[in-house]
Amino acid sequence: MIRKKLLQEITLLQKQREWLELSLNECEKIGIKRSYSIEEFGKFETLCSRYARSIDFLIRKFFGTLDVYEFEYNGSLIDVVNNAHKRGLFEDIDELRMMKDLRNTIVHEYIEEELQETFEDVVQYSKKLIEIIDTSLEYAKRYTKRQ
What we know:
There is one protein chain. This protein is mainly α. It has one domain: Four Helix Bundle (Hemerythrin (Met), subunit A), CATH 1.20.120. It has six helices and no strands. The radius of gyration is 16 Å and the shape is elongated.
């Protein structure tokens, strides 16, 4: 049962990664500017949403499911992050915390100008998030073979 859940989450994480990368590529073509057309702003807003969903899914769902699958104590979110760090899925806990804080800023920002101030960070951290997702998917490959 838990193996099936892990396999489903691997597929979902792959999809999250694809959508995030698509938005990132579109926004990199636009570049960071002082002002954006409505269409450009919409593409950055989509990137922000995909970034927020991707980091949430990775930490809350995927890392947590790995813990359960590998019989780790299913503790707090801090425990889940620490366990993922011990697995070598990312290098710097403080950087992951900043990435999660950026997600919180995106989710709670209601003023366009202030959301626009996050665009440069979202582009930078989206690249890092894709790297972490790739490392996590590579790690999880060991569970995709029939057991």
